[in-house]
Amino acid sequence: MAANNRRMSGKKGAQVGSGGQRRRGLEGKGPTPPAEMRKGHAKQRAAQAKARRSPARPQRRPGGKGSSELVVGRNPVVEALREGVPASTLYVQQFIDNDERVREALQLAAERGGINLMEAPRPELDRMTNGLNHQGLVLQVPPYEYAHPEDLADAAYDEGEDPLIVALDGVTDPRNLGAVVRSVSAFGGHGVVVPERRAAGMTAGAWKTSAGTAARTPVARATNLTRALEAYKKAGITVVGLAADGEADLGELEALEGPVVIVVGSEGKGLSRLVGETCDVRVRIPMPGGAESLNAGVAAGIVLYEAARRRV
After folding, report:
1. If you average pLDDT over residues 208-230, what whole number do you get?
2. Which of 69, 154, 201, 207 could form a disulfide with 141 if both were Cys (CB 3.0 to 4.6 A apart)?
3. Quick check: 141 and 83 in contact, CB under 8 A?
4. What is the mean pLDDT of residues 279-285?
5. Which residues pair with 151 in a beta bridge?
């Protein structure tokens, strides 16, 4: 039987449908955008040129968050929970020796509420703490929510009061920061400002020293302390620096009766050069006993008391 050598016809047979793609391609693409939004249009170029000529309105920056922290060991964990240090999670080692401190930690965490209780094997706790002697208890402290320096003055004015703020320059001990927060709260101040770098932050140690007052006294963080102080001055707030060689005596300082920022330096170095030059006035605390200096917490407490006495 002869082979069938006929070629296939060029006529197309049935094909799979387009699924409506062609129909969608014919659909409209919505209303025509205004000329200012059409790429390459003369009105868009004019709008862009106008925007470049107009100065951008300054926006306030958030104070930002700190970093999370771990409190390690049975006694530190119990003390942190007793003092109301904010916590997100309590890690307890599996098969731990259940002594009084462990029981108290579990009870305090349960009573406060909002603290997750997590059981973890010892190797996991070793990894979390980089091999520190955690004794089977680890408390995670969430990042602190810092305010912006402007927020402190705004809050005071909103309450109908003159701002009373403490700024710390080069204070690196969290316990000093906690003591200052406690004094600000005790004498009716409106907050504390700390630099972002080379300064103590609101760690668990600072929370403990504040004795719970950190929950109601805001701490603001400034990217650059000198610029923050200059902004306060432009807003009509007097900036007073504490210095052993200050040109004025604390008892003569009338500025404490109005809006004021008190700048406290470290016990060893005092105020840095730029911060000292930014202050409107530098004052000294009389010390007839002959001591050369006071730590930041004590110095701030004395000046805050004097300010509170004058404002009554």
Report:
1. 93
2. 69
3. no
4. 92
5. none
